[in-house]
Amino acid sequence: MEEFKITFLPENKSVHIDRGTDLLTAALKTSIHIYNSCGGEGVCGRCKVIVKKGDYITEGSGRITEIEREKGYVLACRTTPESDMEILVPEESMLGDLEILTEEIKAKRLAGLYTPVEEIEEERHKATAKIFKHGPLSTKIFLKLPNPTIDDNSGDADRLLGEIKKRHKEINIIQMGLSNIKKLPRLLRESGWEVTATIGNRNKTTEVVLIESGDRSKKNFGVAVDIGTTTIVAYLVDLDSQKVLGSKASYNPQVDFGEDVISRIIFAQHEKGLEKLHHAVIDTVNTLIDSLIKEVKLTLDDVTAVICAGNTTMTHLLLKIDPAYIRKEPYIPAVNFMPVIRAAEAGVKINPRGLLACLPCIGSYVGGDIVAGVLASGMDKIKDLSLFIDLGTNGEVVLGNKEWLMSCSTSAGPCFEGGGLKSGIRAMKGAIQNISIKNNLIKCQTIGDLPPKGICGSGIVDIISELLKNKIIDRSGKIKNNKIYNIRDSEGAKEIVLVEAKDSAINKDITIDENDIKNLIHSKGAIYTGIEVLLKEAGLKKSDIKHIFIAGGLGTALNIRSAINIGLLPDLPEENFVFLGNTSVAGAKTCLLSSEAMEAAETIANKMTYLDLSTSASFMNNYSAALFLPHTDIEMFPSVKKILNTV
Question: Can you list the domains of the chain with their CATH numbers?
C-alpha cells in the first residue's frame, strides 16, 4: 500500500502513514495530542489543522468557516493524504499542558478566599471524626524462623505460616501460592531462616504475596491512582510510614479516542478498540509509577500494591473488560465490586506478585471515584444532611448522611471541561479561569498569568455570571445590544469579544456567543436538576442541606458566588461550601493504607441508592425549568434576585 510522509509543525515531527489514514490518527502516532471531543467522528469540529503543503481529500464540514477554508483549515479526522504533507497544528487545537489537580484538599473555598490546607484538614476531621486503623493492602513482616530439627519436622511452608500466626493472632486465614512454596526451601536455608513475608489483604482473606531474603520490612510501597476521564493522577505511598513520597499526573491519552465515556464505549466496539483504550491507560499508569519510583531511587519490586479509583467505564477499560452494556438498556456493568487481583493480570508493572484493587462502583455512571469522594469527604459519617458534587463531563451528585446515601449522574456535557464552546479549552496554561467586569471593562485572569488561549470551565461560569449581573445578557441567555462592548453577529448568533486577537496567544479573537451561553445553561441545568430530583426523592428541601462538598478540577477555581448566580449551585450560605480537590485519589490513598477504609468504601457502595435520571418522571419537567438564569422561578434564588434588582 502506498505510504505518505506527514510532518506536523511547529514540533517538526514526522510519520509515515498508509493512504486512507486520516491526519488525526497520524498525529496520534507522533504523540501529538490534537483536541477532539467526538473520537474522530467529525462532529465536534475541534481538530482543526492547517495544510501548508501537499494534496489531500477532505470532507466538507460546517465546522470550518469560509475564511478558515481559504486559509487551508481542515478537520484532521476527516482528511486523508494524497501525497506527502506538511501540517500546522494551531495553538487552539493543541491540548497543551493541563493544570492537573493532584492535591487531596485544595485550599480554595468560600468564593475565592484562601484558607491553609491544614485548617481545612483539621476542620474536616473534626466534622467527620473519621479515623481508620492502619492496615495497608500489603504489609511486610520480618521473620526469624526456628531452624528445623528431627523433633521439629514441620514443613517449610507450615513453619512460615505458623510463625506469622504466632506473631499476628488477628490473622485467621492465610493462603500461599504454589510459586512461593516452590522457591521456599532454598530461600529459607540460604537466608539463614531470616525472611520477610509480604501479607496481602485479598478478598476478605490474607495471603502470603511474596517471600524475600533478609529484612525488607521497611521497603514496602504502594500507589494510589485516580483514573479520570481527562487526567490520571498517581501517588507513591510508603505503606509503613503512611507518607506520600511523590505525586505525578498526566493526560488520560484515551481523550484521543473520545472526550467522554460514551464516545469511548462506542470506540471500544471497533476492531481492536478495547485493546487500544486499555493500553492507553495502562501505559500511562506504568509511566507514572516508573517516574515516581525513580525519583526516590526505588525499584518496581519495592511496589507491592496499587489501588485505582475511576468511574465505571474507566474501571472497565483499565481491566480490559468490555463496557458495551453500560450504555445499553438496562445499563448493567460487567462488575461493580471487582475482586483484588494480581497487578500483572491487568498489565500494571510493579512487583510481579503485587496486588491491584479497584474501589467499588455503584452503577453504570456512578463509579469508584465517587465512592472514594464520599469516603474522603466523610459525609457517610456526618449526621447532618450533606451534598457531594463532582463537576465534570459527567456531573455526579450524592445526597445523604450517615444513615443513607442517594446518587445520580447527570449528562452535563463538556462545558465544564471547556468543550462545546467556540473559544473553549481545558484548564491549561493560558486558559481564562476568572473574569470580572468593572467600570465597563472586561478583565480576564488566566492560568499561569499568560496571554489568553481560550476559556476553561470556571471562566465560562464567571463570564456568564458577570454578563447577567451587568445586564449584558437577559435571563434566557440572549445578548442585548450594548454599544460599550464589542458585540457582533456571527453565524446567526450574537457574540461578545472578550479578548482581541492582538492580545491573545492564538492571534484570534476570544469570544463567547449565544450558542456558548445556551450550552452552559443546559449543562448547569442538568447539574441543578440532579440535585433537585434527589431532594424530591428524599422528601427534603435545599434548606436542609448543611454541607456541600465540591470535588473535581473545576472546583479549584470555581467562584461559588458566580455558580449560584447562574443557577449551577443551590442558593445557600457560601460558608456551607467546601472545596475538596481530588477526592478520587484521596479516597484511593486512604483505602491503600487501611483495609478498614476499604471495607467502609464497600459499605458506602452497598448502601448508596443509584437513581437513573433517564427513568425519572420529574427530571425533564425540572430540567426545562432550570434552563433559565438562574432558574425560571427566581424566588428559588433570593440572593440572585437581590443582586439583579440592585445592579
Answer: 3-93 (3.10.20.30), 138-213 (3.10.20.880), 379-414+521-646 (3.30.420), 417-515 (no CATH)
